[in-house]
Every structure is written in C-alpha cells, then in structure tokens.
C-alpha cells in the first residue's frame, strides 16, 4: 500500500468509528468537524507537516 491508500483507509476507519459512536448516542460533532477538515485536505492532497520543536 502507498501512503495515500493508508491515509484513505484511516479516514474511512475513523468515519466508521464515529458512526458506531453516534448509533450508541454519543455526541460526535467536534470529531465530525475535524474529520471533515482532514477529508478536505486529503482531497486537495495536503498533508499536515509536523514541526519539530527548536530551542530559541
């Protein structure tokens, strides 16, 4: 699998987990909003860059 395939699989897994949580009555509005942002970035091909902490 290539990284894009892994990212897509991870997004699908999160979506499935939120669906199960919602069926159990959990409020997932914040998580759904975060997932929507990740889905949007994925569609655009944007990958978040993790910044290393530096001593200033």
What does this protein structure show overall?
This protein has 56 residues and is an all-alpha fold. It contains 2 helices and no strands. The protein has helices at 3-23, 29-44. Helix 1 runs antiparallel to helix 2 (29-44). The mean pLDDT is 85.
Over all CA atoms, what is the radius of gyration?
A: 14 Å
How many helices? 2
Question: Would you list the SSEs in sequence order as H and E?
Answer: HH
Strand portion: under 5%
User: Which parts are unreliable, with pLDDT below 50 for 5 consecutive residues or more?
Assistant: none
Shape: globular
Q: How many runs of DSSP E, i.e. beta strands?
A: 0
**SS-based class:** mainly alpha
**Distance from first to last alpha carbon:** 39 Å
Q: Give the proportion of residues in helices.
A: 55-70%
Largest sheet: none
Mean pLDDT: 85
Keywords:
66% helix; mainly alpha; 56 residues
Brief digest:
Helix content is 66%, strand content 0%. With 56 residues, the chain is mostly helical. Helix 1 packs antiparallel against helix 2.
Please specify the SSE layout and strand pairing:
Blueprint: H1 3-23, H2 29-44
Helix pairs in contact: 1-2
């Amino acid at each position: 699998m290539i990284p894009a395939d892994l990212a897509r699989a991870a997004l699908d897994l999160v979506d499935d987990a939120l669906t199960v949580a919602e069926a159990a009555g959990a409020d997932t509005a914040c998580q759904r909003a975060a997932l929507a942002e990740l889905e949007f970035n994925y569609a655009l091909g944007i990958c978040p860059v993790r910044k290393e902490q530096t001593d200033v």
